Amino acid sequence: MQIHGPSHIHGAQPLHGPHGRITRPEAVDAGLPIQDELQLSDAARLLDKVHDLPDVRWDRIAKIKAEIANGVYETEEKLQIAVERLLDEIG
How many domains does the chain have? Predict the structure, then answer.
């Protein structure tokens, strides 16, 4: 079938059968069970992990932002905890 655009409308055109030979698929070995297979992309795996993330605690974020803005968030105790965690991760 040929399409020439809206300005070249012709009458009905014949349909042609498939070109070439049609071959039969080879016989499947009846002794082996058929198994389905699923392959997930890396993007699908990452998306699955995103769904497992906990919900964002916006109230906690707002509180911490306010503490940082007021200059009261960083304390000696929090700094010591952060340093200890960093050293544990490095060592």
Answer: 1
